[in-house]
Amino acid sequence: LSVLTHLWDNALSYGQAAAHFNIRNSGIFAQWIRLYREGGLDALQPRRKGRHRSMSAPITKPSEDQEQIPLSQEALLKELNHLR
């Protein structure tokens, strides 16, 4: 917003504003102006890149088979050795 305000207040061309703010692509100003006019300040906020998640994974309760049963240290060591 401050870049656009400076551009408008000083009646700068896109090239002049790009040089002043050290922005390589002077064509971005046209996009920023369009976004600002269509959606206000919120439209200029950066957006996350990538695909949107369509649905979150369903939350499931563990079944009786999956429930954690407290095991003794000896049983845990035995299971660890078996898994290795």
TrEMBL record:
InterPro entries tied to this protein: InsJ-like_HTH (IPR055247), IS150/IS1296_orfA-like (IPR052057), Trp_repressor/repl_initiator (IPR010921), WH-like_DNA-bd_sf (IPR036388)
Ranges where the Insertion element IS150 protein InsJ-like helix-turn-helix domain occurs: 2-51
Superkingdom, natural source: Bacteria
Pfam families: HTH_28 (PF13518)
Disordered, as annotated region: 46-71
UniProt xrefs under Gene3D superfamilies: Winged helix-like DNA-binding domain superfamily/Winged helix DNA-binding domain (1.10.10.10)
Similarity-based family: Belongs to the IS150/IS1296 orfA family.
Protein name: Helix-turn-helix domain-containing protein
